[in-house]
Amino acid sequence: MPHRTTNIAGLSPILLTHLHPLALLTSYFLQFPSLVASPPSTLFSSVFPLTMIQVAYAVLCLDNAALPHGHSTSTTEKKSKSGSLRPKKADSASSGGIAGHILPISLSLLLTTTLFTSLITILLFLFGAPFTTHHSHTILTATHISLLIAFPLIYVHKLDSQKWSEILSFTLPLDEVFAATVGGMIGSWCGAVPIPLDWDEPWQKWPCTILTGAYLGYVVGKFMGMYVVKGKKLVF
Amino acid sequence: MRPNQQWLLIAATNLSLVVGIFTFAVGFFPYKPFLPGLSVFSEESELVAAPFNKVVFMVIDALRADFVYSENSNFKFTQSLISSGAAFPFTAHANAPTITMPRIKAMLTGAVPGFLDLILNFAESDTTSTLSHQDTWPAQIKARGGKVAMYGDDTWIKLLPGTFYRQEGTTSFFVADFIEVDNNVTRHVAPELERDDWDALVLHYLGLDHVGHKAGPKSAFMLPKQAEMDGIIRKIYTGLETKHHLKDTVFVLVGDHGMNDAGGHGGSTAGETSAAMLFMSPKFKNYTSGGFPAPAEPHGEFRFHTLVEQTDITPTLAVLLHFPIPKNNVGRVISNFLPMWDEKDRVQVLIQNAQQMLQVVVATFPHFEPLGADSSQCSTKAQAEEIKLACLWAKALEARSLWQRGQATADDAIEELLRFTKEAQGVLAMAASSYNLTLMTIGVFLLIIANILSLISVFFGAGSTGSIIYTFAINIPVAILITLNCIMMFSTSFIEEEHNFWYWISSAWFFVMMLKERRNGEIGISSLVILLLIRISSRWNQTGVKHQGAPDIVTGFLLKHTTVMWILILATYLYSLWRLNKRVCRRWGSAPSFVLASTIISAAVTFKMSFTQQDAIEAIPEWLLPIVQLFESAPLVSLARAAFMALGIAMSITLFAERTKKDPKRSLRISVVLHDLLSVFLATQSRFWNVPLILVFNIQFRMLVKLSSSASQRKRPLLSPLEISLSSLLLQHVAFFALGGSNNISSLDLSNVLNGVSGFNVVIVGILTFLSNWVGPVFWSLGGIVLLRWWADGEVRPVKEKDDREEGRISPVRSDDPGDQEEGVYRQQIALWTLFWSIVGSAVMASCYMHRAHLFIWTVFSPKYIYTMTWSVLHLTVMNIGVGALWRWGNKWAIE
């Protein structure tokens, strides 16, 4: 099924979802020099613009109806299984205009910045982030990655436990949002590659390469999800 | 393909791999031919005056230039000699590998030893590495009826057997000992200074190197050690001044190499290659025009005063003491000393040096044609090296004859001669690395054959008997792993920092395994624990080059909190006790089992504690000291033998006593016990601070057993045999680097190679050297066999439903015989590992071949090649396949 033709702003979600990566990458690479110069302060000050881009993306492109693939199956399953409280809420939110978005957005942001930032911080530590130093670097990086890859997922799937168990075992069929999440994770992982090289470039320091990898991976994953692997499941 | 055919293919692959690796090595590390016999004087050289007739040659191991010359130095007396002009100070450039034996060789012969000496350094009794048939300056002194006395590092005695008139060697076994090892030398100094029967006195002090190894160049022990050495220098120099029979003695002080910031050496950083070199004598005051600045300012990293080559010491000694310059010398007489001769002798000294080097040039370049004293055909354009040399030689001869005829000054002739020796030294240093490209090409070719064979065995071996169907060759993780690892071999920084690659890719792998667990409806805790432990062990020992010496868990925490460290060490042994109790010797009941298990563990713990007491007593917390001191009188060799013997007995009992048991799981049980015994043995062969890592590996192993077996309410093993093989391949490398391994020679650990060995047995010491440096890989390669047994055991359980085709995994067709199953998956594991090391080995070869003119060929690529040789020949072929086959054969035999 295609995207809905208009959203609450009356703009085409298809157009906007293509502009979204452009906005992300432009804002990222504009602030890249200052990120290299002083990572923590730049990361901190760029949390707000990133949040804005992601919120706009969520509201304008990711209304539940805009992503039929995830929505239709989940509601039917949910309704048949455990009542229809949450899906109903979601439906009411999507049809309630801008005001109706405020609650889901705030809740998603809260989860993103608390639970998921912590989770991703732990993952970063497990994958080799410095443990005794650079704590603000790591936590802010986790916040960024979390806003990138977790926020849209939370916004779309709300607190649907069935969905989340699928997400946490990576069995959810790939779509624009989930593929971007996977892409962002793989990208962050690949971002570690240039760190050991002896080029002595300032951008080789923590966490510049990781974050660059995350943004690029996120964008690649998103397009893959839209056009290449849509509906497929990860096999391993 | 039938199993036997696949085994044949695997054998052929390994044969071609081993032969290829060695063939390439012979071409890559050419055995340097040398001119035999002692050189003799020409008639003219014979008459040159000799400023000195005796030499005191004092080596301080790892004496980096700044230790003597900088303002932080504690060589106060030596600095006063430098500023008063009684000493000529130099910085000597030592070639990599900066380890003691090749460096001593360089100073004895004046030649640059081949890289092969590095390998021979570790098999010291090898006769090809002695210098008894080569021309050295002690041999020259002996040949003219002189006597040489030697005290200190016994490398000298091994290199020059039968040369020394009086000698006493010290060994550098315990680096913790930097007091005794030097006192054993010092106590001979005063008596020797009284004697007048020697012509050369060699002293080699190891203490300063030990301080470096133990605590680094900035440690609190360093300055007192320098003061101690300075006192000995004062004693000797005062002897030179006051004793009549020493008045014509030159006192030489050299470092054989330097050290890096972590206190190690072997590589080629500025710190490691910059050694101090001083010539001292009251006579020099007339020639140094008022002395040199002391302390001095460095020009460049660790460079002070005049920079010379380390080999320059040989011809300089020869002309100062007036004996023929050793035949294979490529060093140059240091020109600072020339004013000690009159004009005529000065030219003659240089002629002697140049003529001797010319012989080396002729031997090195068979097509070299001396032009005589006629340089008319020479142009200034770029030419082949040997033509350039011929021209320089012709010019030098021309200049000399002009000077002889009074048409030019002696300085012109000297200048031309110096130009020739400089060029010759440069050219000959390069010629030391003349490769045999044919052999190298054959090596690459053989590896290509090995690659093809291993690919065939993996491709067509799959599903051959219908029992195991893998998709090895098209398996994405395997392909990614091999491809990335091959690409890395072409980048110097990735070779130096290879550990990062393995930590990085293993983290991702076990993250995916966690998702796999989650897909199976579990939390994923097993993989998560493995992942967490990889993260912890990756910080255990800082390895690689970029952050060498940076604090890690060992240096930053454990050695400062020794109580915590010993609790972890004891926990490791207690874990083994818990594992072995009731498992080893279970046939005779629980009491004998407990007795045997606790005997093994207490023997192993006693040995580890006593070893640590001698190696690093400050690493033992106070509460433990009383216990450690109980065994103070027991010699280490016996303690090690007791531990090994207990392990051996337990192993035999396991193999023999379990034989007759009619137990369907006895094969698995035997394997499990053997692996637990192995991990006790490997703890014995590890540095004490690394023992807790054995516990880490054991926990990871338990987690993998959970994933590979059908325990914990799983119908069948979660991991496929391929995933098990890949996991243990990854963990072999992770463990290697976590224990402090790297692709750098300086990380080789020789502290546990003499455990239980009293004499010097090359084979046993060789085996122990391999085992103590490959602890982690050995744990995981034999662990991989056990894991597959667990898998086979779980897989053969009577599960008859046809639910095999889940999630696209092609599952093996079941057979009822665990032996068949296990044999099949084991064969695939060996095929996979052979494929991995064969392809990566060829990548390393190709990289060495391509980079043979690279600046870092001797410092990055050659050491990597030596590590590759060890990985593929010793670890893959001998360990994984040879010992693995023995292990399985013993096991099979035991259950029949």
From TrEMBL, chain A:
<dbReference type="Pfam" id="PF06699">
    <property type="entry name" value="PIG-F"/>
</dbReference>
<feature type="region of interest" description="Disordered">
    <location>
        <begin position="70"/>
        <end position="95"/>
    </location>
</feature>
<feature type="transmembrane region" description="Helical">
    <location>
        <begin position="102"/>
        <end position="127"/>
    </location>
</feature>
<keyword id="KW-0337">GPI-anchor biosynthesis</keyword>
<feature type="transmembrane region" description="Helical">
    <location>
        <begin position="209"/>
        <end position="229"/>
    </location>
</feature>
<feature type="transmembrane region" description="Helical">
    <location>
        <begin position="177"/>
        <end position="197"/>
    </location>
</feature>
<dbReference type="GO" id="GO:0006506">
    <property type="term" value="P:GPI anchor biosynthetic process"/>
</dbReference>
<dbReference type="InterPro" id="IPR009580">
    <property type="entry name" value="GPI_biosynthesis_protein_Pig-F"/>
</dbReference>
<keyword id="KW-0256">Endoplasmic reticulum</keyword>
<keyword id="KW-0812">Transmembrane</keyword>
<comment type="pathway">
    <text>Glycolipid biosynthesis; glycosylphosphatidylinositol-anchor biosynthesis.</text>
</comment>
<keyword id="KW-0472">Membrane</keyword>
<feature type="transmembrane region" description="Helical">
    <location>
        <begin position="139"/>
        <end position="156"/>
    </location>
</feature>
<feature type="transmembrane region" description="Helical">
    <location>
        <begin position="42"/>
        <end position="62"/>
    </location>
</feature>
<feature type="transmembrane region" description="Helical">
    <location>
        <begin position="7"/>
        <end position="30"/>
    </location>
</feature>
<dbReference type="GO" id="GO:0005789">
    <property type="term" value="C:endoplasmic reticulum membrane"/>
</dbReference>
<keyword id="KW-1133">Transmembrane helix</keyword>
<protein>
    <recommendedName>
        <fullName>Glycosylphosphatidylinositol anchor biosynthesis protein 11</fullName>
    </recommendedName>
</protein>
UniProtKB/TrEMBL annotation, chain B:
<dbReference type="Pfam" id="PF01663">
    <property type="entry name" value="Phosphodiest"/>
</dbReference>
<feature type="transmembrane region" description="Helical">
    <location>
        <begin position="717"/>
        <end position="739"/>
    </location>
</feature>
<dbReference type="GO" id="GO:0005789">
    <property type="term" value="C:endoplasmic reticulum membrane"/>
</dbReference>
<protein>
    <recommendedName>
        <fullName>GPI ethanolamine phosphate transferase 2</fullName>
    </recommendedName>
</protein>
<feature type="transmembrane region" description="Helical">
    <location>
        <begin position="588"/>
        <end position="607"/>
    </location>
</feature>
<feature type="transmembrane region" description="Helical">
    <location>
        <begin position="472"/>
        <end position="495"/>
    </location>
</feature>
<comment type="function">
    <text>Ethanolamine phosphate transferase involved in glycosylphosphatidylinositol-anchor biosynthesis. Transfers ethanolamine phosphate to the GPI second mannose.</text>
</comment>
<comment type="similarity">
    <text>Belongs to the PIGG/PIGN/PIGO family. PIGG subfamily.</text>
</comment>
<feature type="domain" description="GPI ethanolamine phosphate transferase 2 C-terminal">
    <location>
        <begin position="432"/>
        <end position="889"/>
    </location>
</feature>
<feature type="transmembrane region" description="Helical">
    <location>
        <begin position="501"/>
        <end position="516"/>
    </location>
</feature>
<feature type="transmembrane region" description="Helical">
    <location>
        <begin position="830"/>
        <end position="853"/>
    </location>
</feature>
<feature type="transmembrane region" description="Helical">
    <location>
        <begin position="523"/>
        <end position="541"/>
    </location>
</feature>
<feature type="compositionally biased region" description="Basic and acidic residues">
    <location>
        <begin position="802"/>
        <end position="817"/>
    </location>
</feature>
<keyword id="KW-0337">GPI-anchor biosynthesis</keyword>
<dbReference type="InterPro" id="IPR002591">
    <property type="entry name" value="Phosphodiest/P_Trfase"/>
</dbReference>
<dbReference type="InterPro" id="IPR045687">
    <property type="entry name" value="PIGG/GPI7_C"/>
</dbReference>
<dbReference type="InterPro" id="IPR037674">
    <property type="entry name" value="PIG-G_N"/>
</dbReference>
<dbReference type="InterPro" id="IPR017850">
    <property type="entry name" value="Alkaline_phosphatase_core_sf"/>
</dbReference>
<feature type="transmembrane region" description="Helical">
    <location>
        <begin position="759"/>
        <end position="792"/>
    </location>
</feature>
<keyword id="KW-1133">Transmembrane helix</keyword>
<feature type="transmembrane region" description="Helical">
    <location>
        <begin position="634"/>
        <end position="655"/>
    </location>
</feature>
<dbReference type="GO" id="GO:0006506">
    <property type="term" value="P:GPI anchor biosynthetic process"/>
</dbReference>
